Amino acid sequence: MATAISYRVHDAVGWVRLDGPDRLNAIGTTTYTELADAIGHLGRQRQVRAVVVHGAGRVFSAGADIEEIRGFAGRGEFEAFIHGFTDALDVVAASRLPVIAAIHGAALGGGLELALACDLRVAARDTKLGLPEAKLGVLPGAGGTQRLPRLVPPGVAAEMLMLGDPISAERAYSLGLINRLSEPDTVLQVAAELAGQLAAGSMQVPAAAKSLLRSTLRLSVDDGITQERAVVADLFDTPDGREGFSAFLDKRAPQFVSE
């Protein structure tokens, strides 16, 4: 049975869960389609200010649905599958909302690629993370070869891609791939705390930060700073920008209004 997606909203945070514990949350066509729909729906809800993606059962996700892939007749069907998968992860990456991956057990293959498409990653200390496609004679096809080297040193990315061996959450944290470490039984709690911090802040900041990071990725530092100046000046000239400075000077908590 395909891994389904369920979601709910609690205290301004959208919780998106991969619901296929009996198959280690394998990601198939149904899964990534429902994932994109859930992220899109939450992004349109004015009361939602952050999203946490997590997995049911023993792992975050063991990767793409190999049973579905095994049934493909040839290159065309596989290409359509990875095209749909990458499109769905682009929806996650492009969401106006900050998206946090709460990872436990393992995030492998497509599961790690999903986590890479999120903005921030929280992982339990005993988690394994990897792109094992090399052991199948292929490479990751849902953004892994592109997003991973933007988050870790190129040599580490090359090793993970060419050998397919997983790394520990501890090592991933030291490399900057993981933002927060937790104990095995507190990963959702730590993710909730991080989401709560984001939800309590100005909503225009995560959206602007995501947009600026994407648009300046391949620019020179000088050209990137030119864009930064414009974005920051625009933010300053908003109700939230003015409120933030006034609250700081008045030594009080800001009351942000952006949605």
Automatic annotation (TrEMBL):
It holds the Pfam family ECH_1. It comes from Mycobacterium branderi. GO terms for molecular function: enoyl-CoA hydratase activity. The keyword Acyltransferase does not apply. It is an enzyme of class 4 (lyase). GO terms for biological process: fatty acid beta-oxidation. It catalyses: a (3S)-3-hydroxyacyl-CoA = a (2E)-enoyl-CoA + H2O; a 4-saturated-(3S)-3-hydroxyacyl-CoA = a (3E)-enoyl-CoA + H2O. This is Probable enoyl-CoA hydratase EchA17. Gene3D superfamilies: 2-enoyl-CoA Hydratase, Chain A, domain 1. It comes from the Bacteria. Could possibly oxidize fatty acids using specific components.
